[in-house]
Structures are given as C-alpha cells and as structure tokens.
C-alpha cells in the first residue's frame, strides 16, 4: 500500500493535521460502535474505583494518577466524567454516586483496545496504517495509548489546548495521533479545534512541558521538558504564539481519520449538545534506534514492548 499521497503529505506538514474522509467503511464504523456499546454495558460497576478522568486545566491542577489509571497501558479500563457524579459523597459508603446511567457516564475507555478488543485491533494493526506511518517517515512505528473517547451528551468534558508529545514523549519527539470519528463531530458537539501550523518552530510548536509520573511513583504531574523540543529535522526559527485566527474548528464526518502531529496545538470543548461524539484514537511513536521513550512518561510499555504497526509482527 502506498500510504499518503504527495498532496496529503504536504497538507499534513504545513498544517500539522490531516483529515481523510471515509477512511473507515460504514461496516467498520458500525462494528466499532457495537463493540463500544457492549463494553459500556458490560463492565462491572460494583468493583470499579470510580476513577474520574481529567488532565486539569493548568500545570497546578489535579490530574488523574491513581493505580487504576497508571496500570491501564495493557488493559481495557473505564474512566468517568467528573460531572457524572453527585457533588457530595454518600454518607454511608463515602463514595460519590453516579447521576447518570453508567453507559452515559464514561469519559473514555483505554488504553489497550488495539491489543485486547478484536474489532479495534482489526482497524489499528493493519497494513494500511503501516503504510501511512511509513509515508510519514516512521522506520519502526509502534502503537500505544488506544482509547475510545465518548464525549457524553451534556457532560462530555473539555480537553484544554495541548500537544500530544507532552504526554507520550520520545527523545526526540515523534508521536502522531490517529483519530477516527465514529460519529459526526462538528461545531456544537465538542469537535476538534486545531491551530494551523502550530507544530513548527516558527509557531511555538516546542514541547516545553511533559506529563509524567511523580518521582514518588504515585500520581502524575507536569514538569519542564529539558530534552529536545522539536522532532528531528524540524528547524528552529524565531517563534511566535499561534493566534485565534489560526484556530480551525473541524467538521468531521463519521468514518473520517484525522492525523494529528504530536507537536500541533489542539483542543476540544465541553459537549453541551444532546448528541454524543464517539471517537477512537491511538498514537504511533518511533521505535527505531535513535529515539528513546522516556521512563517517566505516565504510560509505560508492557513487558513485550509496544505493538509494532504491522499485523504480521503481532500474531
């Protein structure tokens, strides 16, 4: 397979993201939605620690970082929306109670759908994605952090502006996100907002901070990045901050793939609409010699290492 064509590559390198319509067939989308609803319906609530997912809005805010989260890299686990709970804990149990049915309360499911769920595995570890990765310059593409993002109606939490390589840092940066719309995502239901060109040195595309495990081993935090801030081959230029005029609110149809450069600034708003906005996403990093995955990243590789982006290498 050929991967991206010259026009697509030029757009990705210029903007830091690329929307490819109809990347998944309607049958594939239906299969993933069926699997998603099955997972949401069948996970046991009684034994769940009720971990809520939030990255926080700034470097000093609280971030998710309990053991349920930190050990989820090779598992399928469920993380709740903070707004899905009562404000005060139950006086008998000491736990806050859900105010939504569980299938409408989950923020995301992660972080190894691509290894443990056959439908998600089939659309992830495939030759077509390997070809895309090769056309982007990857030598040994590795998959990590696969998750279903639910963006539940009326409570789906905002994700503040960030760069993905802050969370999945390699030395030098190499992450690229694969983001599949499983339902239409457009203005009004918390679609992606992307700052055009904000992955470049000219537009402040430097990785200046990193989301890591605390040195105590418990919890997470943001720290200053002291390693390379730009991917290999990206020039240092006189930098200026991205502007509001460069923010594009994407209108993405179900089945589309959005490729997201690890240094591009992007966000999504809270979903205040009556419609959910399901998306499946995973990331690819460079596994070849000369790139090092950092030992303090919140997500650490399983014993066998991160999955090679080729079905023949993962049988």
TrEMBL record:
Transmembrane segments: none annotated. GO terms for molecular function: metal ion binding. Residues 224-244 are annotated as: Disordered. Gene3D superfamilies: q2cbj1_9rhob like domain (2.60.120.620). SUPFAM superfamilies: Clavaminate synthase-like. InterPro entries: Phytyl_CoA_dOase-like. Its cofactor is Fe cation. Keywords: Iron, Metal-binding. Belongs to the PhyH family. This is Phytanoyl-CoA dioxygenase family protein.
């Amino acid at each position: 397979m050929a991967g991206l064509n010259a026009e697509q590559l030029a757009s990705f390198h210029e903007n830091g993201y690329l929307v490819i319509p109809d990347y998944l067939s309607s049958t594939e989308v239906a299969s993933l939605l069926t699997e998603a609803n099955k997972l949401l319906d069948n996970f046991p609530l009684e034994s769940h620690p009720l971990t809520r997912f939030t990255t926080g809005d700034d470097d000093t805010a609280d971030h998710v970082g309990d053991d349920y989260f930190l050990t989820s890299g090779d598992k399928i686990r469920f993380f709740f929306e903070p707004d899905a709970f009562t404000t005060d804990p139950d006086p008998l149990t000491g736990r806050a109670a859900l105010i939504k049915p569980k299938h409408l309360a989950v923020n995301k499911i992660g972080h190894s759908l691509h290894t443990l769920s056959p439908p998600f595995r089939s659309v992830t570890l495939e030759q077509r994605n390997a070809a895309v990765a090769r056309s982007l310059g990857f030598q040994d593409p590795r998959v990590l952090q696969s998750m279903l993002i639910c963006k539940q109606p009326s409570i789906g939490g905002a994700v503040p502006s960030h760069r993905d390589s802050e969370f999945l840092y390699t030395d030098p940066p190499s992450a690229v996100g694969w983001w599949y719309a499983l339902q239409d995502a457009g203005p009004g239901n918390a679609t992606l907002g992307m700052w055009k060109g904000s992955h470049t040195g000219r537009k402040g595309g430097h990785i200046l901070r990193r989301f890591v495990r605390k040195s105590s081993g418990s919890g997470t935090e943001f720290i200053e990045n002291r390693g390379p801030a730009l991917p290999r081959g990206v020039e240092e230029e006189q930098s200026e901050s991205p502007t509001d005029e460069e923010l594009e609110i994407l209108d993405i149809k179900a089945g589309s793939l959005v490729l997201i450069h690890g240094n591009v600034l992007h966000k999504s708003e809270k979903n205040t609409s009556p419609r959910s906005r399901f998306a499946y996403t995973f990331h690819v990093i460079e596994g070849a010699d000369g790139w090092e995955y950092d030992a303090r990243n919140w997500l650490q590789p399983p014993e066998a290492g991160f999955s090679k982006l080729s079905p023949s290498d993962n049988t």
